[in-house]
């Protein structure tokens, strides 16, 4: 459930007409709903209760400070993968001990920054990284709390580009090597072993792969404990999928995911950490665009809009589907015609929907891409020198710009022409 609904024929974000935001902010823009963020976070809380748990929001899904702060206020921790995300989580008010630092390629500088503020957990992904973290921690006279991220070799049955739990993926320590790496970690004075971590992929629409992975985690935990390794935390990653197509899809509910967690690892008495991103922010956000032209092609009609692949890259990158709805509610029973919805960028991959049955959309009409709150704004760029898409947050009848669209002056000022290049108007001849 989300809070983007038609009222009196006009799409609203909570109590605010989307058209009012468009009039104030211009298009295209992203818009998130506070009420939906809160609801999704509470679904995970209810799902894991009463087990001792920490919900570390995966900042990569939507890294806006206002979004992180909204979740931090509810008690969320943060799953981060870079110093930039560390700084964002801290700036948004996440307590350092509630921060989990994941990622296969943490640099010594990033480790130092995280140790300086005292993050609660490093998810270490290799023996090599363990050595590096030990060295940095020793040089600072501290101990780094770690879990090893294990690779359970489970097929998450999701898009190949967002699968992480198979042995050919770059992620995690191979399952069979894990006991040896734990033994090495136990002998390192700069390392404090606290648990086991796993994350098998994103947009999972079936619980079976989670079950297989969590059972492997339980098996490893028992084995490690019998070897004398302290395992007091289990970090089960993120990955629960969301319905992108409202009519056809019904991915598992957080409640059932929570029940599965309790069934597979609940009896181990460990603190449970999860790292959800998409499920919290995905359906809490929309991308709003305006139609520029309707163009008649040789064999099809194109709706050309002012948003493009630089603003929302998921369809171009993962062939992903986003429901498209007009901001003015179509009449009941209005005719639908197949159109290609495309952006203005000079690439054939700048396509949002192919032969999608949509009600008539005219030039200047506003349209909305639903389920755009996760991996939307964060993956945007200024390709084709299009200003970075702005972000809006709604709460009840209020809305505010939480990231402004840069001006062209600001964009140009970031570049520098060296003196030795000179300027055409100064060049001889
Ligand atoms: N934890 C780790 C270690 C991760 O790598 C990820 C996502 C998450 C948690 C959060 O997963 P979620 O709950 O959001 O599924 N750009 C792609 C998704 C990439 C996901 C990367 N890792 C997309 O647009 O679908």
Describe the structure.
With 429 residues, the protein is of the alpha/beta class. It folds into two domains: 4-31 and 283-413, Lyase, Ornithine Decarboxylase, Chain A, domain 1 (Beta Barrel); 34-279, Alpha-Beta Barrel (TIM Barrel). 28% of the residues lie in helices and 25% in strands. The protein has twelve helices and 21 strands. It has helices at residues 18-25, 34-48, 65-73, 83-91, 108-117, 127-140, 178-186, 208-226, 254-265, 278-281, 314-318, 408-413, and strands at residues 4-7, 10-13, 16-17, 29-33, 53-58, 77-80, 99-101, 121-124, 144-151, 173-174, 191-197, 233-235, 271-274, 285-296, 301-305, 324-326, 336-342, 351-359, 366-369, 391-395, 398-403. Strands 4, 14, 15, 16, 17, 18, 19, 20 and 21 form a nine-stranded mixed sheet that branches. Strands 5-6-7-8-9-11-12-13 form an eight-stranded parallel β-barrel, surrounded by six helices. It has a three-stranded antiparallel sheet with strand order 1-2-3. A hairpin with a 2-residue loop joins strand 20 (391-395) and strand 21 (398-403). Helix 2 (34-48) packs parallel to helix 9, helix 5 crosses helix 6 and helix 8 (208-226) packs parallel to helix 9 (254-265). The longest helix has 19 residues, at 208-226. The model has no long low-confidence stretch (mean pLDDT 96). Bound molecules: ligand LLP. Residues 58, 61, 79, 102, 162, 164, 199, 202-203, 237-239, 275-279, 314, 318, 374-375 line the site of ligand LLP.
